[in-house]
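In keeping with the milestone schedule agreed at the kick-off meeting, the structural modelling team has produced records for the first pair of proteins. Each record is given below as a sequence line and a structure-token line. The laboratory manager (R.T.) confirmed that both were archived under the project's standard naming scheme.
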Amino acid sequence: MPRTAEISRATKETDISIKVDLDGKGENKIDTGIGFFDHMLTALSKHSGIDMEISCKGDLEVDSHHSVEDVGIALGQAIANALGDKVGITRYGNARIPMDEALGVCDIDISGRPFIVFDCKFMGEMMGTMDTQLVEEFMRSFAFNSGMTLHISCPYGTNDHHKAEAMFKALARALRTAVSIDERFKDSVISTKGVL
């Protein structure tokens, strides 16, 4: 059974359409109008192995906040929908990804209990046309709408681009593990409660 989902989300601030395939090859077509964000989402797709088509038309004349946050919401919902009842998934994933002088660290639990711990100090205010503080906003909206417990950090580094990219790639690799099917439990949910 294909693990795919499509989400459309339209507000007065953004118009978003997203398609995901959890069992893809990391192929992607991404256009949010925010160059740096597109770069991060491309890395998320490629390194997770999740095919993603993401289109966002947002009020960039204001700033990039609404677009980044709303893409996080819609992408989280798409991942949750594609996972369905979560039967057979590995559930947990973690990764440590170096990007030159920076290190991205990510631990996730697709638990149905959304929570985030974010720990990264950026040096500047912007990366291209994207505010550095929006990295945390994306991670929060993604975690809460996918039903995921997410701990993500960059314990050291000096280049903001490297810090952000290391964290997105760490999220990707952790997600790749967590959504994968564990053959030993392919007909059950890995939870003492019996549901996730």
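The second protein of the pair:
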Amino acid sequence: MVNQKYLDKAEVLIEALPYIQRFNRKIVVVKYGGSAMVDNELKKNVIEDVALLKLVGFKPIIVHGGGKEISRWVGKVGMEPHFVNGLRVTDAETMEVAEMVLSKVNKELVSLVQSLGIKAVGISGKDGGMLRVSKKTADGEDIGFVGEIEEVAPKLLEDLLEKDFLPIVCPIGMDKDFQTYNINADDAACAIASAMNAEKLAFLTDIEGVYRDSSDPDSLISELHVHEAEKLIAQGNVGGGMIPKLNNCIHAICEGVNRVHILDGRIPHSLLLEIFTNKGIGTAILREDEKRYYHENN
């Protein structure tokens, strides 16, 4: 008699098959941030997930943040981090530290990916003029060298994917005068996913997903269309911290991305569970013409 655990493993593989077929050779952008960047075991899980996506035929691109690490280093050099409306105030000295830290994080991720036998290239938005920005303000207040993305030049990413590399992007860009700016990693991931006509954009966060009622942990929504997401925001059912992320998701869908996933990066292998299983474990935001995969009531 075959052991049940082996049959269960076979079932998992069979469940994943239609998703592997559907998304073969499609671009998937993974925004990597939160606790999954700090905890070494979670970091290893995420990189394994992305490596598996690559090996089964997807074309992944990682866009990473590094806010916690930047704050740590800003403190180390005796500066005090300041934020306005959730945006880091970035003076010239902070910008120098941020670029140094993000470059360090970037190359660490390259090493992790390559240790799994995947060819990876770490770049910033400055390379190839990929991310052109203008100065961003917070409700009219000057917050220093924080960039608002004006244009994405995807040629470098396209070339890397064509040559079978996995691009790992840190969110640093330049303005028309070649001044360096820090960019919100969520914004960078959305802009890149849109410019690359990505099939999927996945946000790894420190939350489980979108709730119908933010005070009810049992009200997690597995899938919702754009108009439903907009309605949740308008009705005030979404917690304050989720609103900018959900707006980013809606914007990415409107710009041509087919599906956007909000996942809890603290759950081991959440990326694989969301993409390769029928129900998933996070929230998927869909285009209006996209069919739901999971048909039970949310």
